[in-house]
Amino acid sequence: MKRTIVLMLAALGLTGCFGEENSDLKAWMKEQSDGLRGKVEPLPEVKPYTPFTYDGFSLVDPFRPSKMEVAKRSNNSGLAPNMNRPREVLENYDLEKLRMVGTLQQGKVIQALIRAPDGNLYRVKPGSYMGQNFGMVTGISEAEVKLKEIVEDSGGDWVERETALTLDDAEQKK
Q1: In contact, 130 and 95? CB cutoff 8 Å
Q2: What superkingdom does the record give (predicted)?
Q3: Burial of 115 (0-12, 13-18, 19+ CB in 10 A)
Q4: pTM of the entire predicted model
Q5: Cα separation of 67 and 156, whole Å?
Q6: Do the Cβ atoms of 149 and 134 come closer than 8 Å?
Q7: What sign has the CA pseudo-torsion 88, 86, 145, 148?
Q8: How far apart are CA 155 and CA 71, in angstroms?
Q9: What is the per-residue burial (b if ≥16 Cβ within 10 Å, else e) of 118-157?
């Protein structure tokens, strides 16, 4: 009994949906779609694949170390760092990380005080080495330490360059 009442109510509810309430909307939709016809563009022509053959295998590979080794063997300048000497403590640091904080003078020998990144102070004199580019101290004044570094250029040759480590600005103001 309950089932039949529920079915009757559902049928009655559905009959309300079939009225002519939306006839104006249906007419407008039909009117708007009358002149429309879809047009599909033709597909573009597919070009056949032509493979590319790479002929660069006979060229010199720029990433192989043998190219640099050839350049090193042809180095005729005779300039090269002494790899057999014992390394000094300050050669473990980049020159940019070392700070000159002062000078000391004993007799005629002038020494510079260098602060390493670990906070320790070291004395250097002419002939000492510092920095990672085989930098040898060539001169010391009140305001700077002059160095001569031996670096490798892009062709694999060793070249000398001069640089200086100046007195730290904070120390100059004291």
Answers
A1: yes
A2: Bacteria
A3: middle
A4: 0.54
A5: 9
A6: yes
A7: negative
A8: 6
A9: eeeebebeeebbbbbbbbbbeebeeebbbbebbebeeeeb
> SS3 for 42?
coil
Distance CA 18, CA 13 (A): 10
| Secondary structure (3-state) at 88 | coil
CA distances from 19 to 13, 30, 37, 161 (A): 12, 18, 30, 98
Give the CA-trace dihedral at 14, 15, 20, 24, to 10 degrees.
Answer: 0
The residues of the chain scoring below 50 in pLDDT are 71, 74-75
Hey, what are 158's tokens? 């060793």
Place of tokens 């590319």: 52
Helix or strand holding residue 70 (H, E): helix 65-73
**How does DSSP classify residue 40?**
P
User: Which amino acid, residue 117?
Assistant: P
How far, in Å, are 60, 71, 156 from residue 75 at the CA level? Answer: 20, 6, 8
* Tokens found for residue 49: 């694949």
Structure token digits, residue 54? 């790479």
The residue type found at 57 is F
User: Residue 162 in contact with residue 146, Cβ under 8 Å?
Assistant: yes
